[in-house]
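Every protein is a chain of amino acids, and every chain bends into a shape of its own. The protein below has been through that process, and both of its lines are reproduced in full.
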Amino acid sequence: MMLHAPNGFDLSITEQVMKKNCFHIMMHCVWYTSRIMAASCNTTSGSSRNRWRLFSHDVSKEHDVKKAVSTYANEYQRQLNLETGPLMKVICFHAEDGDHLLIVTHHLVIDGVSCRILLEDFMSLYQQAAQGQKLVLPLKTHSFKEWAEAIERYAQSQPLKSQQEYWAEIESKPLTALPVDHKVTKKEKLPKPNQFKCS
């Protein structure tokens, strides 16, 4: 995810915002194996340096700015490590048209929806910090894991099980054919659709 600020980013504010936002982001994560989950718990409970890092590069003098940014981005992406951290890297590129802030994360850490949440939270927190306000985030929503567990508990709950007999009776009743305007007496063969082959 790349953000652009024509007047530049204040890196001290950026670091302040990311420190506030980082743990909030981790709470949205969905982990897929027990090994990764155990590692993530150790990482997120440790120092923020294990969770994310902030870097800065001046690319204003580069002959090909896009190529330089792409090279840096690919290198930082390769350095991400789910087990030992960091889980996220934030890179500020200083260019002639302003600053470009790249936020790099592993795809197992943040999905598309969480990425939107990250962007909204970052913008809100940055504005609060720039205006000297106290940094306040909205309450954390439930993770997919919590939602799935809640659905499983509901599926095994007594209120839902009490409906089982009712639905079993409905299912055992014979189906009534739907009324039709015209009864079909013979099956008609449909013409073959146009076919073609790619060579």
